[in-house]
Automatic annotation (TrEMBL):
Pfam (any one): TPR_19
The organism of origin for this protein: Methylophilus medardicus
InterPro entries with a match to the protein in the record: CHP02466, TMTC_O-mannosyl-trnsfr, TPR-like_helical_dom_sf, TPR_rpt
Ranges: TPR repeats: 73-106, 107-140, 141-174, 175-208
Keywords: TPR repeat
Protein name, as recorded: Tetratricopeptide repeat protein
Amino acid sequence: MAISLPQTINSLIQQLNQGQFAAVIQQARPLIAQYPREFVLHHLLALALDQSQQYAPAAEAYLAALKLNPNAAELWFNYAIVQTQCQAFDAAEQAYRKAIALNPQFFEAHGNLGTLLQKQGRLAEAVTSYQQGLRIQPQDARGHFNLGTVLRDQGQLQAAVASYERAIALFPNYTDAYNNLGETWRDQGDMTKAVGYYQAALQRNPQHAGANYNMGEFLYLAKRFEEAIPHFQASQLDDWQSRVLYCLYRGEKFDGFKQLRDEIIKQGPHTAPFIATLSTHYSLNHGEPDPYQFCPDGLSFVYHRPLPELAPGSPLLAELLLNIAQADIAERKQARLTNGKQSAGNLFKRPEAAFRALADIVKREFRLYQLQFKDAECALITHFPDTLEFTSSWYVKMQKGGHLDAHIHEIGWLSGAVYLAMPETADPQEGAFEYGTHGDQYPQLQREFPTRFIKPAVGDIVLFPSSLFHRTIPFHAEAERICVAFDLKPAAHLTMARSQY
C-alpha cells in the first residue's frame, strides 16, 4: 500500500524531532521536487539544514517556505538566525523586523534583534530592542541578562548590575548572570564582590567556563599561580593554555613551561599573541632562539603615522575631546595606571558620532598595517583577521606624574592607540610610548630585554602586535595626556535564541 504524503510528512517530523537531520534532508529534497508547493516540506528541509549548521542552504530553504507562507512570523525569525550565521546582517535585521511586524508581541524576536544590533555596535538601538522585549515579557530572565551586557558595553556599570540582579531574581540558577555580575564588579574595582559572584556561579555549575576562567585570572593576579592553573584547565576557554603557561612561567616552573609550550607549538598554528610574549621572554632569558612564530621580531612590526583627520585644530579632534570630557562613561579601575583614569565599556560601540568616525579610521589603518607588512612570513600577518572586530576600546586620561606600567593586552591580536592630547616636555622620553620584550614582573635571569620608544604627537596613531609589552613613561608637565586605545581580534560568532518546529 502506497504511503500518502501526509503520512510521509508525519514521518519526517518524527525524524526531525529525533535529531535525524541527514535523513530528513535526504528525503525532503526529492519530495520537494515532486511537490514544490508543499510548504511543510520546505520548512522541514530548512529546519534540518539549520540544525545541521548548513546555514547557506538553510537560508534558501527558509526563503522558499516564506514565498509560500509569507505571514509566518516564526519562519521569519528562524530565517533571520541563519542569515546572522551567514554574516548577512542586513537581511537578518529585515527578517527580525518582519517577524515583529507580523507579531508585535514576539519578545524573542525583539531580543534577538537587540543581540544583532549590539553585535554591530548599535548599542542605543539594542537597548531599545531589549527593553521592548521586556515590556512584553518582563519575566524574561534572558532579556534582562542581555540588557545587562549592552549596558556594560556602554559603560553604564551600575545599570548593568541592576539588570543582572533582576535576571538572577527571576532565575536563581542563572550562572552566566552570576559570572557577568562578577565581571562588572571587577570593572568597578570591587574584587571581593567579583569573586563572590564567580564562586556563586561555580557552586551552581563547577564546570562553568567563564567563571572558572575569571577565578583563574583573579588567582593569578593575586600571584596564587598554582591555584589558578586548575581553573584555567577547567575553563578550556579562549586563551586558557596561554594562561596556564603564564602561571607556570611566573611561578618559575621553567621545565613545565617549556614542556607545555613545545607541545602547543607542535599543534600549530602559532596564532596566540600571549604565548608569543611568554615564548619570547623565555627564549631571551635562556639565550636560545624563539620557536613560536606568531611575530618573533615584534619590535619591527610597530606602525606609527599621523592621521590627517586628527590634525591639531581639526573638527573631529575637537569633538572627540569634548565627548570624552562630557560623556557619561563610568571609570574602569586599572591597577597599573597612576594619576589617570580609564573609561569602562567599549568606546567604539557608543552612540557618539565622533567615536564611530574614529573607529572607521582605525579600521582603515588596520588594513594599511596589514598592507605594509604583507610580505612578512609570520602568523600575525598570514593569519590576519578577515573581519575586523574591536575586543575593547577605551580612553586613558593622565595628569602630571601619570604613567602606565608595562603590560600586554592578552586578548588582542593587534593593539594600538590614537593620541588626542600630549604634554609638551623638554625630555623627549617623558610621556612617550615605550614598547619592548619585558614587563609585568616576569622572571629575569638576565638583563638584556630590548625596548624602543615613540613620542607621539597629537593626531598620531600607533599600532603594534598585542604580544609586545608597552608602557607610558612618566611625565611631569602640568598638562593632560589623552589617548584612545583599542584591541583588534578575530571576529566571534553570535549566539541567538531559537524557535523550534
